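User: Show me an example of a complex going from sequences to structure tokens.

Assistant: Sure. Here are the input components:
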Amino acid sequence: MRSLVLRTGVASVFHTTLVFSLFLLFAGHNAPGGGFVGGLVAGAALVLRYLDGGSAGVGDTVRVEAPALLGAGLTLAGLTGVISLLTGSAFLESAKATFEVPVLGEVHASSSLPFDIGVYLVVVGLVLMVLRTLGAEGEDGDDDALVAEVDARPGGTL
Amino acid sequence: MFFLCALAPAATVAWAASHAGAVLDGEAVTSSFSWVPGLGVDLDLRLDAFSLLMVALVAGVGVLVLVYSRWYFSPQAGLGRFAGTLTAFAGSMLGLVLADNLLLVYVFWELTSVTSYLLIGFEDNKGSARAAALQAILVTGVGGLVMLAGFVLLGQAAGTYSLSGLLADPPSGGAVPVALVLVLVGAVTKSAQVPFHFWLPGAMAGPTPVSTYLHSATMVKGGVYLVARLAPGFATVGPWRPIVLGLGLASLFLGGYRALRQHDIKYLLAYGTISQLGLMMVLFGAGIPEATLAGAALLVAHGAFKAALFMVAGVVDHQAHTRDLRMLDGLGRRLPLLAAVAAVSAASMAGLPLLFGFVAKEAAYEAFLHDSLVLGSLVLAAVVAGSALTVAYSVRFVWGAFAAKALSERSIETVGPDVARPPSGFVAPAAILAVITVVLGLAPGLVSPLVYGAAAALDPAVEAGQLAVWHGINPALVLSVVTVAGGALLFVARQRVARLQASLPSVPGADDAYRGALTSLNRVADAVTAFFQNGSLPVYLGVILTTAVVLPLPSLLGAPFPEELVAAESLGQIAVAVLVVAAAFGAVMSRRRFPAVLFLGAVGYGVAVLFVIQGAPDLALTQLLIETLSVVIFVLVLRHLPDRFQRMPWKLGQGVRLAVAGGVGAFVAAFTLVAGAARSQPSISSAFLDQALPDAGGRNVVNVILVDFRGFDTLGEITVLSVAAFGIFSLVRACRRERAAEEAEQAT
């Protein structure tokens, strides 16, 4: 019994929220925002999707699995630190550069951006994990499928 | 892949050879990198002649084992991992024999334990392999820890952790005897000496290339290496000789005795290795120059013949699919080359003339014939007797694996004449080692400079000389004849020996002691866990919160209370604060879970509004989002809980809860007030504000702190987040499984 109002409402704000989360992520270095907040906003968007369509709805929206997001985020953040080590700076010491890009004009880039993207991915991964496990509890079938799918893998663990 | 990995030890051999000339002239090659200078831990590496001998052994056998592995394994998953781990193990072992800092020795020592754990347990779907790997790492790991304590005592007594510095000026008195006993515990566990010998046969559960490498040339020689290094400086210190000679001779005997009882040719070799390691312990540990020299020669000889024999056992296993000598029949006729390799290597192990093992054994007899040790003749007699056992099990190995025993006539299912011939590359590594054994046996002068150089590097008292095949008819030769005759007798009378061994009562072994210790350790751990983690959430929370209040309480009571208190800066703050407090009361008073969660959320939103009023948009935004997500997660969990809180009668339990809750509230309020006024250092926030733009190129200081100034913290936090995510997944899955099992039970 999905509510039409809810469905229409979620559909209209879902993408806007995601775009807003990306805006927060990229603007974070100079304005309020950042990877953590951005990730939380994206997580809120997923929660909206969940309220509308349950964990199946979330699954349809995000086809990437939560562990993949968590792993990718951690790896990216860790690599940023390692790369700064390799270039002779301290672990996670940021470097910055300014580029001239046609149309956009001057663009500042900082090596802390990939780190922040890593944070963003981990936060989104956490929310996704919660929705797909705790959220699926009780809606029999769906999370059984996830568990069965993971169990079926070689090694049987994540 | 194996050939690729073999390039690494091959390069080491080439490197060692390029330095051999200078090193044998007595010039050590050293190299040093600073690591933790504050603790005296530096990467000091030193290549002297003894290290050169070990490097040649470790890297040389390493190349052969990797080549051998190429043929031993059928294509299967995980071989890349195996080859990589084996190469890593070789690297750790090289580090061990090159390290010139006690703590660095310890680091490499443990690295060999860890990599050997992975190697022994390579077939991780077999429970026996996992158990054997665990046993090996527990025994050698505990020994390593004890040894570390000994190292620290030694280093403190000597004032240096440098191995060469320590031996140049050995400390004495005080804690030194204790330190040496501790170090010896490490050495005897690593080298599988009585009473810690049991892990070595257990480790035979690993693939044969692992046994070949770890138990002939490398891992188990670690303890021998350490004893050899320390003996010249410390052999005269109180407990050293009784321990080393006692345990070494016991291992020499026990290994030989048990080897005669084995039906599995690989286990036969394993017990033989314990026996040979015992002999090496005796030779190096005695701390007399001639014995040290014999030890160096035996080290080379054993590396060659034992590696070859393990490889032969692996080939037999691979081709015949059994290692049981009660089933192998007539394999020698089918695989003559392999049998020849085995015969040569076993003969060298037995110490038959014209092979290098003979040269080493003669040197050993020679040493104890001329030494000045108390009870020296007793040691000599024991070594001769142990060597007779060695002769017997050497013959047993060749006979067991290759001889035609006419078993099929006695209607026993046998393997032998019809096994597939192994590819030549499979036999080649063992054959190369057998050739080395023969060549060095005929012309020991080739390796003489290395053996003498190595012994002299350990103990400067070793006189220069030459290893020789023939010393004329002398007491040592007579002893050799006695040894071989005794061994032959033991073999000929093998059925009588077997009956005798069977009739002796079996004493509870060290293996049982290990298992008993492990079981009781687990039981204690279970009891402790059951006491501290009794599963009651209120108790956990109570303990955590009470600790959080009680521990900082003394410093709170001593701190000055702020003199000026600003109650509020604006009406808005008062209004929000009133709402927050009201919502908090609502959460506590609510009898149903769902409203309580909503009230909690309201508290959080109120705090977010306070942040906005204070001008902290980042914090406010984060708080708002976190509260939202928390409420959602709460609701997801609430679906599984009863609608209402459990009603509790007004009893002691509730009083305690009330006290804890009130105490925590009062404490946090007081702490916040005091902490705000207790600043003794200037705030770092101005520095952050100043540096954010020029250093990190960001105008949002909060974000710059998160991703740059305190980036390491953030990395830790997202790691915790990920762990929590997987924790949620595992918990949910565990509950599901339990429920599914219950349902299945009910259905049946």
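The lines above are the inputs; the final block is the predicted structure for all two components together. The longest helix of chain A spans residues 35-61.
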